[in-house]
Amino acid sequence: ADKAAADKAAADKAAADAAARAAQAARQAGADRLAAENRDLAFRPFIGGFFGKQQRQYDEVDPADLGIDTNPVRRYGDAQVGAKFGVAMRLGDSKWSFNPAIGFAGNLEEGSRSAGLFDLPIVYNFAQGTHLGSGLSFYDFTHKDIRTFSWLGEAGFPIWKSEPKKHQLDFQVEWRQFFDRGSDPDTNYQFWGGLRYLFK
Fold it and tell me: What DSSP element (H or E) covers 30?
């Protein structure tokens, strides 16, 4: 009877040890899979298309060269369409990322006022895919006399996701407040909204 009891205790211990090893292996496999997914999502290219408006003052440096007789205050609001290309780079294992991008804002009313831009935002990514960001934007680097830094604010909201590929389509809005002529913020800004496609 004692030997049978000892054998049963040994068998129970072996079974418990085997179950513990299996559970540990499952936990490790899950952790490895999550780490691999995080590595894959640490560097994500994106492309975006936007439509919006630029409100800006010009003196004699107006690329359209319309002249003071056309608009004595040289204050113009122009519709724009544009695109951006960039990459979302996760900062460690946090929910923050650095999303540098280069883009072009085509002016639909005066083509010579079209602007190149370079964005440097820091972005917080929420669990469900929404993101909020802020940083600097170097605006209109295609015209040396009127290029300026600006404050950039952006927000994105997911409207479609592909779980197998980890791709995501966002509706995104952006605002740029130009530092040039900062004393007149109501007439020196740019905003637009559109779609951003985020690759794995």
Answer: helix 2-40
Element (H, E) at 53: strand 43-57
User: How far lies 138's CA from each of 4, 120, 143, 176, in Å?
Assistant: 81, 8, 12, 10
pLDDT digits 0-9 by tens, 37-83: 666 678 999 999 999 999 998 777 777 776 555 556 667 899 999 99
Q: Is the entire prediction scored with pTM above 0.70?
A: yes
Report yes or no: 92 and 60 within 8 Å, Cβ to Cβ: no
Tell me how far apart the alpha carbons of residues 117 and 138 are, in angstroms, rounded to a whole number: 6
The Cα–Cα gap between 76 and 198 comes to 33
- CA atoms of 193 and 79, how far apart (whole Å): 12
Phi, psi of 170 (to 5 degrees): -115, 150
